[in-house]
Amino acid sequence: MKETLQVINQMVADGVIDGYVIGGAIAATYYLEPINTSDVDIFFHVAISASGLVSLSPLYAYLRERGYEPKDETIEIAGWPVQFLPIFNPLLEEAYQQAAKITFQGMPTQIMQAVHLMAIMVQTGRPKDYARLLQFMEAEVVDLTTLELVLARHGLSEKWKEFLKKFGVTVRKI
Amino acid sequence: MNDSNILPPEVAALFARQAEYRRRLARLSFEEKIAIIERMRELNTWRKHVERSHVITPADDSRHY
Questions:
Q1: Into how many domains does chain A fold?
Q2: Is the Cβ of B26 closer than 8 Å to some Cβ of chain A?
Q3: Which CATH number belongs to the domain containing residue A82 in this structure?
Q4: SS3 letters across chain B
Q5: How do residues A31-52 score in pLDDT, each as one tens digit?
Q6: Which region holds residue A125: left if phi is over 0, alpha if psi is between -120 and 50, else beta?
Q7: pLDDT over 70 percentage in chain A
Q8: I need a labelling partner for A14 at 20 to 30 A (CA). Which of A100, A145, A171, B59 fits?
């Protein structure tokens, strides 16, 4: 993982991407118990070409030159399949802007805050997101008042209420 | 209703131990947690390799009867 982050940080230094934030299961693992996952989700701003098309070609070309090959929807970097995902909505943008700065084995990196991970799970709403939301709530890592403010800001309050009702969850604010 | 009220005591105790185990895992450092995930990935790869390489043949089956 350290070497993977080193390569991604170098991509920022070389101007291939302007920055990034780690999301998904790896970010969730920072706050919870280890989650069995096969890849690292990296959120970044996609460069839009003059014609208005979104292209990942420069990113792929950069990594290919260094011997990292695409595999399905990921690119294998130093033993970890990395999925590069565009920041495409205001919630992801906020998660990027307010990312927690941490170090991994001395390597600086950015990881989504727990409150944003939870809000994204509410937004995405797949069964695995709801299962992980319950884990976050059980672990009490987020002040739910703060979460509800984020959800309201992004128009997700109704989805949150539906989730609570569906799973019979009583909100206990910390 | 609290689950512990409807579950047999030994099952409730098992769940409590499991929850404590998960809390202890959550308290590990990020580096330790990633090391655990990397080990999980190795085991997944090994398991898939074994599943792919070991094709059950009629001869294998006959040994079980």
A1: 2
A2: yes
A3: 3.30.460.40
A4: CCHHHHCCHHHHHHHHHHHHHHHHHHCCCHHHHHHHHHHHHHHHHHHHHHHHHCCCCHHHHHCCC
A5: 999 998 989 999 999 877 667 7
A6: left
A7: 97
A8: A100
- Helix A24-31 to helix B30-53 angle, to the nearest 10 degrees? 130
Same domain membership, residue A98 and residue A127: no
Is residue B25 a contact partner of residue A19, using CB atoms and an 8 Å limit? no
* Residue A5 with chain B: CB contacts under 8 Å: none
Chain A positions touching B23 (Cβ under 8 A) are 33, 139
Query: To 10 degrees, what angle do helices A114-124 and A90-97 make?
Result: 170
pTM: 0.84
Which residue has 């208005």 as its token pair?
A52
| B34·A34 Cβ contact <8 A | yes
Looking at the predicted complex, does its ipTM rise above 0.90? Answer: no
Pair (A128, A97) in one structural domain: no
Domain hosting residue A156, numbered range: 115-166
Backbone angles phi, psi at A91, to 5 degrees: -65, -45
Expressed as residue numbers, the domain containing B46 is 3-62
Are B30 and A30 an interchain contact pair (Cβ–Cβ within 8 Å)? yes
Residue B49, pLDDT score: 83
Q: Are A119 and A150 in contact (CB under 8 A)?
A: yes
